[in-house]
């Protein structure tokens, strides 16, 4: 193979010596470690497989491959379904490496993936799958001399890119100083032949395991692998666990001195090389340090109808390696107040807070992100503190949890929506009645309004049930005014639900003999006004239908007492509208009105 390089390129001699067939283009690509356009071996003469003005070894949609090794740069559009079959009659195994892959954004594994089969067709056993969720540099190995992979894409208009490399090898042929188990508290590892050039077709895996409750710091004092922007050809990959399936911390190539840190006492290091451009490899040293338990979270979330307040202790942030300058909400323009603690306080509908109607509750969620700085590469470079206010069933469930290395820490607290009920002097609902008790005339029309005090403008208030009782604890005797949104008293009129207000009116009445006061208790449903199918828009429904109907949040509120006006002589015979108890048993609940 022949390459054009700057005369001072350190590997110029290697490339010329390995020339067999070539193609090139006269651009600045010469100054990369490989040109962006090249062909492999005799592919330079095969137009179907190589275009010197586009990319390396680009088969059309699928191919049958028989070479001992091959690199493929694959570009696919929407709705592709392509199959590549690798087969050669040799008593060897195939190693297949997907060193770079870019699927359509947000595609799922169900709609877009690479599936690899351990045999000559897609009917062979499934060996593995690569998709957007793959957090690794996938390396798969066949059990025989044949292997098949299929790439499928969804309908999104997007150019997918893949770099695939395979080669046949004999598993029994070992390379010295290639991988192994390292169990001491500290140690060193070097690539094969270091500081001489590493071998071609090398795949080495080192497993590092230190004492429990420790973490590993891996520092490369020297690393020189073939340079490529995406590390497609030769690379070192570091994983946050005992296998390559435990999450990729990072992949590196070129000339560098990176440092990696694990989240626990295990780490895996991989070296993979192809057939060309060998350099001196790497020398690395690892150390272990105690894994200190973080300080108690010392986080506090307070929710009200109007606002959310997140308090973080400085000592907790310090234990995580952060300070107040590293924090931001969904909306970065909302900054915290800093005293002995770090405090975010903001209205529920601001600072990027998201609102979600979950059927029987409404949640408001915001995220405090902590972004790390520095040169150490970790598996998860940021921490998220997720604050959630959940409004449901007479209370506000306040949840705050921290995500770090897939660990979630929770704390909960209880609060309330702020709801009140008042009487008004007219149907304009402009002037509330301030006196208490509220003295009324016989059969006087009373106007009642339930008010929700919240900064969220998109909430409906629905009066579901209202009962009257001579007792403020609503014990043995009650009378239904409204039940399940249905008017149970023939003087009741309900108004359509409004954002933040529920309204109704009814005629005054008084209890029998000694019960001189009346109290009202109403059950209130609060719904997202943007949901056209919520319980708040359904009106009167039967109990059976109500059981399967969805509402968002439920609470109750009490107002009273209401008392009948009396003249100075204390007239006691003005009761033609008394409610007579049908059953005088102390638990009787059925009343009727005498008009």
Automatic annotation (TrEMBL):
Please report the stretch or stretches of sequence annotated as the ZP domain: 302-543
Q: CUB domain: which residues?
A: 61-169, 178-289
Claim: Signal is one of the keywords in the record: yes
Q: Which key words tag this protein in UniProt? A: Disulfide bond, Glycoprotein, Repeat, Signal
| Tree of life domain | Eukaryota
Q: What is the lineage of its organism?
A: Eukaryota, Metazoa, Chordata, Craniata, Vertebrata
Q: Which organism is it from?
A: Aquila chrysaetos chrysaetos
- What residues form the membrane-spanning segments? none
Pfam families membership: CUB (PF00431), Zona_pellucida (PF00100), ZP-N (PF23344)
Q: What is this protein called?
A: CUB and zona pellucida like domains 1
């Amino acid at each position: 193979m022949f390459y054009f390089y700057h005369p001072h390129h350190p590997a110029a001699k290697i490339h010329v010596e390995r020339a067999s067939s070539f193609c090139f283009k006269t651009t600045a690509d010469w100054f990369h470690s490989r040109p962006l356009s090249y062909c492999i071996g005799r592919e330079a003469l095969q137009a179907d497989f190589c275009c010197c003005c586009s990319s390396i070894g680009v088969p059309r949609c699928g191919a049958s491959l028989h070479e001992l090794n091959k690199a493929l740069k694959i570009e696919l559009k929407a709705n592709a379904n392509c199959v590549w079959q690798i087969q050669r009659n040799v008593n060897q195994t195939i190693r297949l490496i997907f060193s770079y892959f870019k699927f359509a954004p947000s595609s799922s594994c169900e709609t877009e993936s690479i599936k690899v089969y351990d045999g000559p067709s897609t009917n062979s056993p499934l060996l593995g799958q690569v998709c957007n969720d793959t957090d690794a540099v996938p390396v798969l190995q066949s059990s025989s001399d044949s292997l098949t992979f299929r790439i499928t894409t969804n309908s999104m208009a997007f150019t997918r890119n893949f770099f695939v490399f395979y080669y046949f090898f004999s598993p029994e042929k070992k390379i010295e100083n290639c991988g192994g188990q390292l169990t001491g508290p500290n140690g060193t590892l070097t690539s094969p032949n270091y500081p001489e050039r590493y071998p071609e077709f090398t795949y080495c895996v080192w497993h590092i395991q230190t004492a429990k409750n420790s973490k590993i710091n891996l520092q490369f004092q020297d690393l020189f692998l073939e340079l490529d922007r995406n590390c497609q050809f030769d690379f070192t990959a570091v994983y946050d666990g005992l296998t390559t399936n435990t999450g990729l911390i990072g992949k590196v190539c070129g000339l560098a001195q990176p440092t990696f840190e694990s989240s626990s006492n295990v780490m895996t290091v991989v070296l993979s090389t192809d057939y060309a451009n060998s350099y001196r490899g790497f020398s690395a040293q690892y150390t272990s340090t105690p894994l200190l338990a973080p300080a108690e979270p010392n986080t506090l979330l307070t929710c009200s109808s109007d606002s959310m307040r997140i308090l973080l202790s400085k000592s907790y942030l310090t234990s995580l390696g952060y300070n107040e300058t590293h924090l931001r909400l969904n909306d970065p323009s909302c900054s915290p107040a800093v005293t002995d603690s770090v405090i975010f306080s903001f209205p529920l509908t601001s600072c990027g807070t998201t609102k979600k109607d979950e059927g029987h509750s409404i949640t408001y969620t915001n995220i405090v992100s902590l972004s790390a700085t520095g040169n150490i590469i970790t598996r998860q470079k940021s921490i998220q503190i997720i604050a959630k206010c959940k409004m449901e069933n007479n209370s506000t469930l306040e949840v705050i949890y921290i995500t770090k290395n897939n660990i979630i820490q929770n704390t909960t607290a209880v609060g309330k929506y702020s709801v009140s009920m008042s009487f008004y002097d007219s149907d304009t609902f402009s002037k509330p009645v301030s006196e208490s008790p509220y003295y009324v005339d016989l059969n006087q029309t009373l106007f009642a309004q339930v008010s929700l005090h919240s900064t969220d403008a998109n909430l409906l208030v629905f009066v579901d049930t209202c009962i009257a009782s001579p007792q403020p604890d609503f014990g043995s005797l009650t009378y239904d005014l409204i039940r399940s949104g249905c008017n149970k008293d023939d003087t009741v009129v309900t108004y359509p639900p409004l954002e933040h207000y529920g309204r109704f009116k009814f005629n005054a009445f008084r209890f029998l003999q000694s019960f001189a006061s009346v109290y009202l208790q109403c059950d209130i449903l609060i719904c997202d006004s943007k949901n056209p199918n919520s319980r708040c828009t359904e009106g009167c429904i039967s109990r059976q239908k109500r059981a399967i109907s969805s509402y968002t949040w439920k609470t109750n509120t009490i107002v009273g007492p209401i008392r009948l006006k009396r003249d100075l002589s204390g007239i006691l015979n003005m009761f033609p509208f008394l409610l007579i108890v049908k059953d005088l048993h102390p638990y009787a609940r059925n009343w009727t009105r005498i008009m």
